[in-house]
Amino acid sequence: MAVYALTGFSLVSLLSFGYLSWDWMKPSLVADVAMDPMEKSLPPAFTRPPHIVFILTDDQGYHDVGYHGSDIQTPTLDRLAAEGVKLENYYIQPICTPSRSQLITGRYQIHTGLQHSIIRPRQPNCLPLDQVTLPQKLQEAGYSTHMVGKWHLGFYRKECLPTRRGFDTFLGSLTGNVDYYTYDNCDGPGVCGYDLHEGEDVAWDQSGKYSTFLYAQRVSKILASHSPKEPIFIYVAFQAVHTPLQSPKEYIYRYRSMGNVARRKYAAMVTCMDEAVKNITWALKKYGYYDNSVIVFSTDNGGQTFSGGSNWPLRGRKGTYWEGGVRGIGFVHSPLIKRKRRTSWALVHITDWYPTLVSLARGNLSNVPGLDGYNVWPAISEGKESPRTEILHNIDPLYNHAKYGSLEDGFGIWNTAVQASIRVREWKLLTGDPGYSDWIPPQTLTNFPGSWWNLERLTNGLKKSMWLFNITADPYERYDLSDQRPDVVRALLMRLVYYNRTAIPVRYPAENPRAHPDFNGGAWGPWASEDDAEEWEGIREPQKSRNKKKKCKICKLRSFFRKLNTRLMSNRI
């Protein structure tokens, strides 16, 4: 009975939002045979390499853009997407660091050791230094490279900083979230510091400026001081719309009729970010870049529903492997696109931007073998089939194992207690604990039929650790087909086994008290020396040449910092 009520509710609600006009049932446009990641299609013959602006927003929900039926005003994003190519089969990662690492390296997080959680401020961890980054490849191709915004790929050593990883300039924060005006970030009680950096220096003088405005102004300044005759790459990683929910009052006033306070503030932040994108686009035109430019817009993960975000009508939220956590807002806007003003259903993943943009820049990919991304420019620009047929969403061996999972449940192929998810053509498999699994409507809506929520309670009560969905036919993940299609389940489990064999050890070291901002002038920043790194990362094998005396010194040093941290915390409490 609940299923019938759910179906009826879905039709009524989706008609009211206009979702049935979306061609969710359209057959997959991916190729039947997988291509090698390095089998790249050549970019079109531009007269010169295009200027590239990559805009990444933080925690913006799938529903939270005008052209997805949102009540939030995003006129700039709507116009840019309408005049370009909307990517409606576009996937990202469920949290911050994994999406950013895969964008910058073109590799799944199991191939960089970042498959568990995020890089936390006090961890001696960062994007592996042996990875050749996207900006480094663009520098090789003759590009000027600039980053503005949130890094969140580690900073415990100077070698980890954006300016050491391929960016000529950097203005932004190193940690995961900061105050939009003061740029303070607290990583627990009493562990607070300032986090806004200009290059490798702390930008104390910029405090008080709203970050969304500050970052857009910096992009305009970069464009004004550069020559449009020389190729440029600008990575704009807005802090917006991550918590804390802060926005100039004039933007909040526009949404004064919204009853939900968090949604009201969140909506204001989205609209403010939309205007920042408008100013960046205007600067591209004013300074002569636009006609030879490619603008890529992407979210980094699903919206956080208890902080104002909405992924409706998708299931789940940020931090989960349901569609609401991993299906992103994405589009490309460029005068260089051959087939504009359309929606693409080609399968695209955030790792694909690395080979796609390097190919557009006429860069060399031959010396970066083993990329997990594909060049999808022909699919975007010309409407050709995507070379991608599958996506490994992730395998996280450290995440809490599902209570009811087992190797037996995985046909002896895979332990279903392990958190993992994979998409192969139209099929999506999840094992372990995928995360909070509700369907959450925009907070401005009320009086939903109980059957919708009752079905979710029933699903949670089934003691499951494995789900299978036909995402092409069922994008809302309502109908689990794992019992009906064991043949598909076995095939996808085998793919998980294949990927797991290629995974490198997880990089997730313990936090170190030396990272405390009080030891670094009150700001978050690099704190470890090159000699420290090997011991504190906690993942590398100790070298045999190290003698006992040196190990003893290290033990004493660790003990000293543990005691010091305990005293600091007790004094603050």
From TrEMBL:
Its cofactor is Ca(2+). Pfam families: Sulfatase (PF00884). Signal peptide: none annotated. Keywords: Calcium, Glycoprotein, Hydrolase, Metal-binding. The keyword Glycoprotein applies. It comes from the Eukaryota. CDD domains: 4-S (cd16029). Residues 50-361 form the Sulfatase N-terminal domain. One of its GO terms (molecular function) is metal ion binding. InterPro entries: Alkaline_phosphatase_core_sf, ARSB, Sulfatase_CS, Sulfatase_N. PROSITE patterns: SULFATASE_1, SULFATASE_2. Belongs to the sulfatase family. This is ARSI Arylsulfatase. It comes from Corythaeola cristata. The gene is Arsi.
